[in-house]
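Data availability (excerpt). The following record was deposited with the supplementary files.
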Amino acid sequence: MSFFGESAKLKYIDLSHSVENGTVTYPGDPPVLIENYLSRDMISKQNGGGPNSGAEINKITLVSTSGTYLDAPYHVFKDGKKIKDCPLEKLVNIPSVVVTLADDRNYFDVKDIEGLDLKDKAVLFYSGHDKFFMTPEYGVNSAYLTIDLARALVENQVAFVGIDTPLVDDISNLSDNGTPVHYILLGEEIPICEDMTNLQALPSDGFMITAVPPAVAIESFLARVFATVIDK
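Predicted structure:
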């Protein structure tokens, strides 16, 4: 890859929560349900019961915002693009930077990106809140992006925004303010990735991420998100 140089040895870092039976992502949403649709014995009997005749097929029921997932513009705009419409160029091998939460704040602000070159890059906001995933604390006091920061990200022409909390918006103030950061970013067709994890394993810059969900015709869907970094 020319981004790293021809002789670079690369490694991959998973940035996604696993999705299992019982997983709850956004506090209060129904848990993921994974159940057997056709067992190995059932398929084996259908196929004559001979050697190499068995297999297993499961059925999964989940809300679209389960696990580590992407939001497309249709999430908030009824005429916006859906997940299936997101061009792969916006989701694959995106040069990236990590912005770490400073001080004792529970929000990221414009000063956190001052001096950074963000044009055409994925900006991943690391708060460490992912350690509370699947606990009651996950939906409490989680870090978010201010409206001013969202506007600054648009002005800086970022390609992608990710965070290791339930929402890029203030989860404690949804009834009053709604989700303005979603509207600002998705209004410019900037994909949003929420509920990321393992961002502490990344360098501050000089790496790429890939975040590709299935081509589904809905507003949001879980994705396998990973970073490509130089293995030093």
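Summary of structural features: The radius of gyration is 19 Å.
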